[in-house]
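Problem: given the chain below (128 residues), write out its structure.
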Amino acid sequence: MVVAGLVLAGIAAALHVVIFWLESVAWTTPRARATFGTTEQEAAATRELAFNQGFYNLFLAVVTAIGIVLVAAGTTGAGAALVLAGTGSMLAAALVLFLSSPDKRRAAVTQGAAPLLAVVALVVGLAS
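Solution.
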């Protein structure tokens, strides 16, 4: 189960790198605007906020990736702590989005599914 948790955490981290790209690099492009449902004017007005938010997503992905590497290298305690901190924060952010923005619940489920499964699988695997 630990391996499954790490694979799911890797998927969650990869998704958050994509979200970083969309928010911090491509925010005003047609692709990002379509993904987030913003107009050209809204994207221009919120560019700085999205840029900053994208980096939060990147940092969560980096923390998770470092944790995966540490677990794979045999430093299970520190690595698991980082993986759980990263994926737990991803899951918490998805929950906030789910509860605060009913129109974005599909995005919240997409954003939170892999972290949720990663947390469950990793905790079950470590407890076994």
